[in-house]
Write a structure and sequence with these properties.
Layout: E1 11-15, E2 30-34, H1 35-45, H2 50-61, E3 66-69, E4 72-75
Antiparallel strand pairs: 1-2, 3-4
The chain binds zinc ion (ZN).
Length: 87
């Protein structure tokens, strides 16, 4: 075997809705992800669903002041604002 063989990325199957929470093994509920990224996901979020993660981030870290529009977040316009994005 050649020493120049490219190392193949290790992948694993992630249940979008965890099987422990009623998620199925069907294609729609499985995403194939890098093993390290998969470990990081569960270290950070345990068995939370994507909706629960978004709800947690919005309500705990952003105090409900953000809306998700087209995959990006935009601060809700409340009262007077400068119109500038403050990231
Ligand atoms: Zn997983």
């Amino acid at each position: 075997m050649s020493k120049k063989k490219k190392k193949k990325a290790r992948r694993s199957h992630h249940h979008i809705i965890p099987s422990s929470r009623g998620g199925t093994d069907r294609y729609e509920n499985i995403s194939t992800v890098d093993v390290k990224a998969h470990q990081n996901y569960h270290t950070l979020f345990g068995n939370m669903t994507p909706e629960e993660i978004i709800d947690y981030l919005v309500n705990y870290f952003w105090k409900g002041n953000y809306n998700f529009i087209g995959g990006k977040h935009e601060k809700e316009k409340r009262g007077k604002g400068t119109g500038k994005q403050d990231y």
